[in-house]
């Protein structure tokens, strides 16, 4: 395996260490593969147990993206190889989604400060990696989104939890349209905590080496289970360093915030057909961001629109672990359903951008049709692969 994730441990001035993990696949905009997810989960666990590591920094190689999604090519191959055999026959998809979701949950519950540099494109699987970080940083070039409607999947990686926690009904709008957010709207939607200019990032990283990080109680050789310094100390030091690097200029409101009142009115109902029609009516809107959002939805998978809506409705009050379990079932079902493979084919394989969605209309993708995405595909005697998540 190539070094698809690069690791470095940088010594701080007071003898502690900062663990740096760099997604190293810039040719695919640092798309997350199964091997990368496995490797990252293993190293994060090691750093969590190392009392000298006071902070973990997660970033992407190159200047274009932190992470623009998951391994769509690998999933496409697995879907082609297991076509017609049912969702449980796709061993690669079973492993990929389990490892990816466990990694995302691990980041959400990480015991140490975890800084994610969300520069450039942060899409789909990249959102899953970034959203659980304790300190989420964007640059002036950040573009965030969950564009699964265009490939026939749904906003997964905890998206059904995340989108439900956005202001008003904006999360539903983003799920149905795949609209991208700029730096300003990343804050409005609750996807970012800090803003650092791209040119200032190296200086920020260097400044972290000078912080008076709190090390383990009793010294680095202490074996006691409670030897770690209070989490709040190092969280506070990291926050102070990030605030010191934030630009003085105020960010102008982005299009999501500008149109949030209208979006809430359009998406606050309980009938998907009415919400869909109201968003579709924006296709000729004078604001190009709204028009593009509507047109993306209309060109996207009607099945994804139905599934994303249903997941957000059903999982509104569920825990993060429960959301991952439900999304795992839905993701496996999506690999056995034609739209996911067809969406990848049209976008990445044949690149004709003419997907033949099935069902072809929202009316055909009804409430009865969507039920198959909630049926566990494994033998009844087996537990859920994520049964222990959150235990």
TrEMBL record:
Read off the CDD domains from this record: crotonase-like
- Reaction catalysis annotation: 3-hydroxy-2-methylpropanoyl-CoA + H2O = 3-hydroxy-2-methylpropanoate + CoA + H(+)
| Top-level taxon | Bacteria
GO annotation, cellular component aspect: cytosol
Its source organism is Bordetella genomosp. 10
* The EC number(s) this enzyme carries: 3.1.2.4
* InterPro entries per UniProt: ClpP/crotonase-like_dom_sf (IPR029045), ECH_dom (IPR045004), HIBYL-CoA-H (IPR032259)
Task: Write the protein's name.
Answer: 3-hydroxyisobutyryl-CoA hydrolase
């Amino acid at each position: 395996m190539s070094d698809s994730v690069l690791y470095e441990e940088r010594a701080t001035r007071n003898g502690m260490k900062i663990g740096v993990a760099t997604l190293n696949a810039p040719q695919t905009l640092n798309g997350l593969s199964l091997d990368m997810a496995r490797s990252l989960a293993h190293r994060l666990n090691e750093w969590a147990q190392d009392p000298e590591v006071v902070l973990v920094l997660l970033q992407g190689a190159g200047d274009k993206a932190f992470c623009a999604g998951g391994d769509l090519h690998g999933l496409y191959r697995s879907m082609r190889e297991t076509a017609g055999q049912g969702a449980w026959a796709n061993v690669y998809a079973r492993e990929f989604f389990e490892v990816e979701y466990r990694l995302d949950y691990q980041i959400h519950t990480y015991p140490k400060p975890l800084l994610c540099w969300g520069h450039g494109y942060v899409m789909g699987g990249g959102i899953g990696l970034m959203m659980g970080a304790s300190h989420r940083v964007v640059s002036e070039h950040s573009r965030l989104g969950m564009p699964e409607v265009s490939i026939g999947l749904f906003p997964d990686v905890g998206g059904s939890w995340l989108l439900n926690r956005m202001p008003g009904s904006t999360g539903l709008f983003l799920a149905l349209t795949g609209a991208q957010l700029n730096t300003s709207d990343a804050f409005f939607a609750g996807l970012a905590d800090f803003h650092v200019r791209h040119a200032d990032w190296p200086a920020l990283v260097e400044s972290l080496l000078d912080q008076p990080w709190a090390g383990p109680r009793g010294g680095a050789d202490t074996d006691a289970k409670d030897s770690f310094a209070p989490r709040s100390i190092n969280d506070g030091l990291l926050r102070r360093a990030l605030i010191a690097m934030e630009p003085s200029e105020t960010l102008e409101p982005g299009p999501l915030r500008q149109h949030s009142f209208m979006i809430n009115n359009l998406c606050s109902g309980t009938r998907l057909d009415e919400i869909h029609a109201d968003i579709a009516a924006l296709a000729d809107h004078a604001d190009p961001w709204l028009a593009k959002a509507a047109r993306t939805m209309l060109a996207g998978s009607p099945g994804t629109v139905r599934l994303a809506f249903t997941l957000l409705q059903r999982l509104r009050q569920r825990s993060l672990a429960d959301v991952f379990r439900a999304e795992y079932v839905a993701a496996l079902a999506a690999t056995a359903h034609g739209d996911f493979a067809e969406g990848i084919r049209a976008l990445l394989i044949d690149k004709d951008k003419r997907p033949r969605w099935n069902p072809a209309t929202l009316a055909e993708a009804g409430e009865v049709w969507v039920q198959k995405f909630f049926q566990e595909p494994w033998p009844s005697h087996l537990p859920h692969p994520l049964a222990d998540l959150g235990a």
